[in-house]
Predict the structure of FAD-binding protein.
Amino acid sequence: PTDFSLTGRSANRVVILGAGIAGLATAYELGKAGYDCTILEALDRVGGRNWTIRGGDRVLELNHSFQVAKFSDGIYFNAGPTRLAQWMVTMDYCRELGVDLEIFTNSNAQAYIYHQHVGAPVRWRTAKADMYGYVAELLSRATDAGALDAALTAQDKERLIAFLSSFGAVGNKASGFRYTGTPRRGYSVNPGAGDQPGTVLGPVPSLSEVLASGVGQWFEFEHGYEQAMLMFHPVGGMDMIPRAFAARIGPERILLRSKVTKITNLQDGVEVEYRDHYGTTRKISADLCVAAMPPHILAKTAHNLGAEVQAALATPTVVNAGKIGLEYNRRWWELDEDIYGGITATDLDLTQILYPSYGYGSARGLVVGYYNFDAQANAYAALTSPERERRAIEQGIKIHGAKYRDELATSVSVAWNLQPNIEGAWVSWPSRQGAYQLLNKPAGHVYFAGDWLSHMIAWQSGALESARKVVMGLHQRVMNAN
Ligand code: PHE
């Protein structure tokens, strides 16, 4: 736990630009120490990219396309962030804010890997059993034949072979360490009662077929520090986090539909111009400002922070991502395929399919039919929402069959590059020198905060850590001035 508290209080006025996770955390932490915070938010909701879409919600895109979510009661679609790792500070904020968590299933042996040239989906468990099995066979044989004698003592060899035997479920020396399949692959007929031992899934592909299938490329995913299980998500939708922040901050301090149009650093403070709810231009003055907007949006906002800051804001590259939420009339992934959460990885342009980690066994459910990046996300972004649905369904049928179309109730898609005032999923820096360093320091009375100023880009924890860093720096400065 990394609870955060500031020593000393201040009544200074701080204007915060953006009610995304960084802006909300800034207001929340400064508020605890007495600061008088106001948040300007261009959208009509808090959270920024932390966006949960439910029935009745509207999705407006920059090309003027318009969707109204027709999801059933109890169904939600996390269009942005979807998972929290246990080590992330986001977990601590959930505890502090009273946001209930449940497990988010990021890897599931029962989900699939689908590669077009293979033609049929393969369960992760089957792919792993075969790949691990053949690797263990080859390494056991090479070790036993003395090919690795330069690297291994006699005892090392024995221990390595023992490990490989359990790791890959391969035969003993007498059988040439052969991998011939294992129940780890799964069953075509499950084990049952009495004299029903079940039928292990077959046939076992050859080593060459397993290598050619390319399934092994996905295995690293669940080994990553950020993506390894267990992972978590808030009960009821990711936006429980911004909602809880907003409730603690006080909704009266958050001006929605208030788009920042100009940031002016002054001798003794800061002045921010914005267009309010009614289209009227207004000004707000403060002692300090925290700009918690995306860098590419700040770069399009008038300011007097200088050419170097402007160039720095325009330095990172914007990355696009997209998602579609598909509500189904029937939880066929559970009923027909025994999949309760997790992700199917593919080489289709939908990239991946995510099964819901909530509502198991209930009547309806929401599958994320694509979550893709870069070129694949751009391809879907260029389509109308009905076209996106059609394309996602056509692709998904290859894995799940006709029910993937027939049992669909409704869908909503989000292309992050087309979201007003956000215009991207996240950014990437060419380097952590120069521009990144500059924006990690205040420009006069203006500080910058966001995941884009952290080493956890595209994670809420990056936004939270950045906000804390700015809050500490700002508070130190105010305390030193007193
Ligand atoms: N955090 C986002 C996710 O988990 C984006 C991301 C993807 C970040 C992959 C890093 C690596 O989907």
